[in-house]
Amino acid sequence: MTAAPRVAIIGAGPAGIYAADILLSRIPDARIDLLEKLPAPYGLVRYGVAPDHPRIRKIIDALHDVLQHPSIRLRANVEVGVDITIAELLAAYDGVILATGADRDVALDLPGADLPGSFGAADFVAWYDAHPDVPRTWPLAAETVAVLGAGNVALDVTRILAKHATDLDRTDTPDDVLDALAANPVRDIHLFVRRGPADVRFSALELRELGEQRDVDVIVDPAELELDAHGERMLEQFSQRRIILRTLREWAERPPSSLTASRRVHLHFRQRPVRIEGEQDVTGIEMERTASDPLGRMIGTGDLVHHDVGAVYRAIGYRSSSVPGAPFDEASGVVPHREGRVVDADGVPIPRLYATGWIKRGPIGLIGSTKSDAAQTVQHLVDDLAASDRIGDESDPLAHLTDAVDWTGWLRIDDAERRVGAQRGRERTKLVDRDDMIATATPTPPAVGDGLKAAFRTHPAGIAIITAATQGGPVGLTASSVASVAVDPAAIMFSVTRATGSAGALLDADTFVVHLIDEDHTDLAQSFATSGADRFTPEQGWIALDSGEPHLPGARAALRCRALHTIPVGSSTVVIAEVLDVVAGPSGRPLVYLDRRFHSLPTHSERN
């Protein structure tokens, strides 16, 4: 029987997560390690989508469902090339997939592009999306701004610059970004597109949203909407282009007397940048008018136009960064490959190395393209696995990554963000600082008085049985599978067979109690599961939290918990909970689990 393959995916954004999902649909017993440089998963959906686009961010819900699969192991805060190398991964895994996306701005070869006040859109987006590796300040000082680009990122940048900060209060935008946007003195934003209005890359919906902002007018010169022969052909072929032009014409027909907003967005077509002007800072931009040749290519006309602006935002495209140890084509900004199989300088496929997403095809296409792209790569991986032997080494190649953020750690970050957001009437407020995120993800033992009340070091085969009861009444749940329990000082994960009750009840309780039972007392715990409702009373409960001693016969310790998530797995439900307090047995000593029983450890004074 062939062993289940072990695959590493580098990048926990949509491309990497879709690849994992598709691989598990083809090989259900595959084991997947998902490595991510940032302390949080979801990539560009978390750190590249504007905060006022919650419908797009809902993609995270679908990605979350994939990541909680028991065959996927998340290891965030891991940088390939620093914490572990490509060579080490190839030696330990049957397949390695590069899915690191595109994180940099395409360079603009233009005089003045490096002046202070000339910004790449990727940096600006990372700032307002609370990326943990960018500075937390942004110089919003210009009253007149230019944005260069014809895609949705250019629209996002324009919209965020024009938006009043109070309109982002209900989003996950951090306070430092809101404060900076509230002080933004901008009055006029000029969006320049080098092509004509029938050739833009905006989506019709995003363009419409630009004009739906409070106290923002969109201004279009009717003369710039005139179409040449190429533009007419574009309208005939593409319905979206017709919708876009209809929206632009509606804006162009508005009477000047109706344009009374405090901020204005000016749309300019058929203009390309020639130079960014200024000596110490940006003071203006010179544009050249363009026209279409018979093949629809844009050519310069020699007609120059000057605009006084105090800042320029370049939104002309994203570019991937190389992954140390993997081939990279600097000219095209992608990994060289053949349908997802990474190739070397001679065009020969490198065994077990693959690529998917933007690092494979460049920063083009939306979610649908990412899925089909991942399917192509995964199919080649599956074909290669069928024709090759397994690596065979069962040791954990990531065991040394002690600073990695795992799935439970991410759930702690997620929970912390949601709790902070709830205080403001939001779904969440993002944690920004990398160290804060890692500290939030890292379990810390609960301290009581001048020491720890309990210290647990168990493993999945450690506890014979668990019982749980809410403070207000019994839930009647018992986890009877020894191999399904794991405890650390701040979190617990256990499996509940669905026949014993509804694990969802734990999510509804403010807190609940988990009892740790020695193997020779499992009959009492089973009795609680089957008839706990008859035997439990709030006055004589299984545990008295105020006394700190478990009252369930045979219980050696108890944990007061709050459920974070429940995950259906086969005929059971996995419960992931945060440990709020750990109560030791009557001796008050810490406990460890050895030989299927709990044992008291000496106290600090007894050891000394």
Topology:
Layout: E1 6-10, H1 14-26, E2 31-36, H2 43-47, H3 54-57, H4 59-67, E3 72-76, H5 86-92, E4 95-98, E5 104-105, E6 118-120, H6 121-128, E7 144-148, H7 152-162, H8 175-182, E8 188-193, H9 204-210, E9 216-220, H10 229-237, H11 239-252, E10 263-269, E11 271-277, E12 284-292, E13 298-308, E14 311-314, E15 318-319, E16 337-338, E17 341-343, E18 349-355, H12 358-361, H13 367-386, H14 407-422, H15 434-441, E19 447-448, E20 451-452, E21 465-470, E22 473-479, E23 486-488, E24 491-497, H16 504-508, E25 512-517, H17 522-535, E26 543-544, E27 549-550, E28 555-569, E29 572-583, E30 591-594, E31 597-600, H18 604-607
Feature tags:
single chain, 608 residues, alpha/beta, Rossmann fold, FAD/NAD(P)-binding domain, 7-stranded antiparallel beta sheet, 31 strands, 27% helix, 27% strand
